[in-house]
Amino acid sequence: DVVLTQTPSTLSATIGQSVSISCRSSQSLLDSAGNTYLYWYLQRPGQSPQLLIYLVSNLGSGVPNRFSGSGSGTDFTLKISGVEAEDLGVYYCMQATHAPWTFGGGTKLELK
Amino acid sequence: EVQLVESGGGLVKPGASLKLSCVASGFTFSDYWMSWVRQTPGKTMEWIGDIKYDGSYTNYAPSLKNRFTISRDNAKSTLYLQMSNVRSEDTATYYCTRHILRVFDYWGQGVMVTVSS
């Protein structure tokens, strides 16, 4: 199975600070058709996960543009440009290039 | 409004069976692939498997394939997860999700399953 390693595991930030989360894959997530099935989800406290980013860099519906995704191959990054209070929670990357689909271990974003 | 509502969880003994349901509303259920994803108490996320929109094809995580079965009833807009011979490590919150082009765009609120004697 593909292993996704997220760093850091915990991130402390102040409101307005810009932060980045890394997701590193044990295999390339580029498939033979040229697609990279890498996603980012946010799980706020007490809630279900919600989609933030799909296919590496595309914003999900209704997701603020302070969120951005980048990367290729095995290295991917989620950036939040100006953390807001509603961004607190656990962020997960997920890959769907290789079966079985797998998730990273999560990064908890908390207020400093 | 898209809604996915899971039910059927609870406390179950090791070796027993349990069937979870997920009732969908707010969209044409029969147009979408659906998946089950679980989250352990330690917050680890695991994809269980998915089912094609017409129910004709399923995929499973290899580690769960022999004990878990996904099915659907499009007439009832309901997704199912049949769990058999459950183990303590199956203790988790189980989510049903809608997906399109491998994107989990909607998730249910989740249902807890606790496996303990």
Explained architecture:
The complex is a heterodimer of chains A (112) and B (117). With 112 residues, chain A is mostly beta strands. Chain A has no helices and eleven strands. In chain A, the strands form two sheets. In chain A, strands 2, 4, 5, 6, 9, 10 and 11 form a seven-stranded mixed beta sheet that branches. A four-stranded antiparallel beta sheet of chain A has the order 1-3-8-7, with no helix packed on it. Chain A is globular, with a radius of gyration of 13 Å. The model of chain A has no long low-confidence stretch (mean pLDDT 97). Chain B is an all-beta fold. Chain B has no helices and eleven strands. In chain B, the strands form two sheets. In chain B, strands 2, 4, 5, 6, 9, 10 and 11 form a seven-stranded mixed beta sheet that branches. Chain B has a four-stranded antiparallel beta sheet with strand order 1-3-8-7, with no helix packed on it. The radius of gyration of chain B is 13 Å and the shape is globular. Chain B starts with a strand and ends with a strand. The model of chain B has no long low-confidence stretch (mean pLDDT 96). The A-B interface holds A 37, 39, 41, 48-51, 54-55, 60-61, 90, 92, 94, 96, 99-103, 105-106 and B 43-47, 59-63, 95, 102-105, 107-110.
Summarize the structure.
Chain A is an all-beta fold and 112 residues long. Chain A has strands at residues 4-7, 10-13, 19-25, 38-43, 50-54, 58-59, 67-72, 75-80, 89-95, 102-103, 107-111. In chain A, strands 2, 4, 5, 6, 9, 10 and 11 form a 7-stranded mixed sheet that branches.
Throw out a few tags for this protein.
heterodimer, A: 112 residues, mainly beta, seven-stranded mixed β-sheet, 48% strand, B: 117 residues
